[in-house]
Protein backbone atom coordinates (compact mmCIF):
# COMPACT_ATOMS: atom_id res chain seq x y z
CA UNK A 1 0.00 0.00 0.00
CA UNK A 2 1.49 3.32 -0.98
CA UNK A 3 1.66 6.37 1.21
CA UNK A 4 -0.95 9.10 0.66
CA UNK A 5 -0.18 12.79 0.20
CA UNK A 6 -2.70 15.63 0.56
CA UNK A 7 -2.47 19.14 -0.88
CA UNK A 8 -5.11 21.83 -0.53
CA UNK A 9 -6.05 25.41 -1.29
CA UNK A 10 -8.98 27.78 -1.04
CA UNK A 11 -10.12 29.51 -4.23
CA UNK A 12 -12.04 32.76 -3.88
CA UNK A 13 -14.75 31.71 -6.34
CA UNK A 14 -18.03 29.82 -6.08
CA UNK A 15 -17.88 26.03 -6.38
CA UNK A 16 -19.57 25.72 -9.83
CA UNK A 17 -17.00 28.16 -11.29
CA UNK A 18 -14.13 26.29 -9.63
CA UNK A 19 -15.48 22.96 -10.88
CA UNK A 20 -15.67 24.33 -14.43
CA UNK A 21 -12.05 25.52 -14.33
CA UNK A 22 -10.92 22.18 -12.92
CA UNK A 23 -12.72 19.99 -15.46
CA UNK A 24 -12.87 21.92 -18.77
CA UNK A 25 -9.96 21.32 -21.19
CA UNK A 26 -10.09 24.94 -22.37
CA UNK A 27 -9.16 25.94 -18.79
CA UNK A 28 -6.93 22.99 -17.84
CA UNK A 29 -4.31 23.97 -20.44
CA UNK A 30 -3.83 27.32 -18.66
CA UNK A 31 -3.00 26.01 -15.17
CA UNK A 32 -1.91 22.36 -15.28
CA UNK A 33 1.87 22.63 -14.77
CA UNK A 34 4.12 22.94 -11.73
CA UNK A 35 6.45 25.74 -12.85
CA UNK A 36 6.63 28.67 -15.27
CA UNK A 37 9.03 26.79 -17.57
CA UNK A 38 6.42 24.07 -18.30
CA UNK A 39 3.17 24.14 -20.29
CA UNK A 40 0.10 21.97 -20.80
CA UNK A 41 -0.45 22.21 -24.57
CA UNK A 42 -3.26 19.64 -24.76
CA UNK A 43 -6.01 18.31 -22.49
CA UNK A 44 -8.78 15.79 -23.09
CA UNK A 45 -11.42 15.06 -20.47
CA UNK A 46 -14.37 12.66 -20.57
CA UNK A 47 -15.72 13.45 -17.10
CA UNK A 48 -17.84 10.43 -16.11
CA UNK A 49 -17.21 7.14 -14.31
CA UNK A 50 -15.27 4.99 -16.76
CA UNK A 51 -14.33 8.07 -18.79
CA UNK A 52 -10.69 8.89 -19.46
CA UNK A 53 -8.58 12.02 -19.21
CA UNK A 54 -5.20 12.86 -20.69
CA UNK A 55 -3.19 16.03 -20.10
CA UNK A 56 0.08 16.62 -21.95
CA UNK A 57 2.76 18.37 -19.89
CA UNK A 58 5.93 19.63 -21.58
CA UNK A 59 8.99 21.72 -20.80
CA UNK A 60 8.86 24.99 -22.76
CA UNK A 61 12.40 24.38 -24.03
CA UNK A 62 11.41 21.00 -25.47
CA UNK A 63 13.71 19.05 -23.13
CA UNK A 64 11.00 16.74 -21.84
CA UNK A 65 7.35 15.94 -21.47
CA UNK A 66 4.85 13.34 -20.36
CA UNK A 67 1.17 12.46 -20.44
CA UNK A 68 -0.77 12.59 -17.17
CA UNK A 69 -3.68 10.24 -17.80
CA UNK A 70 -6.13 7.86 -16.23
CA UNK A 71 -9.73 6.82 -15.72
CA UNK A 72 -12.50 8.31 -13.60
CA UNK A 73 -13.93 6.09 -10.88
CA UNK A 74 -16.42 8.56 -9.33
CA UNK A 75 -17.77 11.94 -10.41
CA UNK A 76 -20.11 13.75 -8.00
CA UNK A 77 -20.57 17.16 -9.65
CA UNK A 78 -19.26 20.12 -7.60
CA UNK A 79 -18.25 17.73 -4.77
CA UNK A 80 -15.88 14.85 -5.52
CA UNK A 81 -13.77 13.35 -8.28
CA UNK A 82 -11.96 10.04 -7.87
CA UNK A 83 -9.64 8.64 -10.52
CA UNK A 84 -7.03 6.01 -11.12
CA UNK A 85 -3.86 7.00 -12.95
CA UNK A 86 -2.59 4.68 -15.67
CA UNK A 87 0.06 3.38 -13.23
CA UNK A 88 -2.71 2.32 -10.80
CA UNK A 89 -2.32 5.08 -8.22
CA UNK A 90 -5.58 6.59 -6.95
CA UNK A 91 -6.50 10.23 -6.38
CA UNK A 92 -9.49 11.87 -4.68
CA UNK A 93 -10.32 15.56 -5.16
CA UNK A 94 -12.92 17.13 -2.87
CA UNK A 95 -14.58 20.51 -3.42
CA UNK A 96 -16.40 22.20 -0.53
CA UNK A 97 -18.09 25.58 -0.30
CA UNK A 98 -16.76 27.97 2.33
CA UNK A 99 -18.86 31.15 2.29
CA UNK A 100 -18.26 32.56 -1.22
CA UNK A 101 -15.11 30.49 -1.76
CA UNK A 102 -14.26 26.86 -2.50
CA UNK A 103 -11.84 24.64 -0.61
CA UNK A 104 -10.09 21.98 -2.70
CA UNK A 105 -8.46 18.99 -1.03
CA UNK A 106 -6.55 16.59 -3.26
CA UNK A 107 -5.26 13.29 -1.84
CA UNK A 108 -3.14 10.97 -3.97
CA UNK A 109 -1.15 7.77 -3.69
CA UNK A 110 2.55 8.61 -3.66
CA UNK A 111 4.87 7.40 -6.38
CA UNK A 112 7.44 5.08 -4.77
CA UNK A 113 10.31 6.32 -6.97
CA UNK A 114 10.12 10.07 -6.17
CA UNK A 115 10.82 11.71 -2.79
CA UNK A 116 7.56 12.47 -0.95
CA UNK A 117 8.41 16.15 -0.39
CA UNK A 118 9.12 16.62 -4.11
CA UNK A 119 5.76 15.05 -5.02
CA UNK A 120 3.89 17.16 -2.48
CA UNK A 121 5.60 20.35 -3.65
CA UNK A 122 4.89 19.59 -7.33
CA UNK A 123 1.20 18.82 -6.82
CA UNK A 124 0.85 21.87 -4.54
CA UNK A 125 2.48 24.08 -7.19
CA UNK A 126 -0.09 22.90 -9.77
CA UNK A 127 -2.89 23.58 -7.28
CA UNK A 128 -1.43 27.07 -6.63
CA UNK A 129 -1.41 27.71 -10.41
CA UNK A 130 -5.03 26.58 -10.53
CA UNK A 131 -5.99 29.01 -7.74
CA UNK A 132 -4.22 31.95 -9.41
CA UNK A 133 -5.70 31.19 -12.83
CA UNK A 134 -9.26 30.60 -11.59
CA UNK A 135 -9.37 33.66 -9.33
CA UNK A 136 -8.25 35.73 -12.34
CA UNK A 137 -11.24 34.68 -14.46
TrEMBL record:
It comes from the Bacteria. It comes from Marispirochaeta aestuarii. This is Activator of Hsp90 ATPase homologue 1/2-like C-terminal domain-containing protein. InterPro entries: ASHA1/2-like_C, START-like_dom_sf. Residues 18-134 form the Activator of Hsp90 ATPase homologue 1/2-like C-terminal domain. Belongs to the AHA1 family.
Amino acid sequence: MSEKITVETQVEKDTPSVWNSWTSPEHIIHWNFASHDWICPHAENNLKPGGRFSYRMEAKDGSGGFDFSGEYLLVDVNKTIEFSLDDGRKTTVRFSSVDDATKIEETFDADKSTPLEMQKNGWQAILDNFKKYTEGL
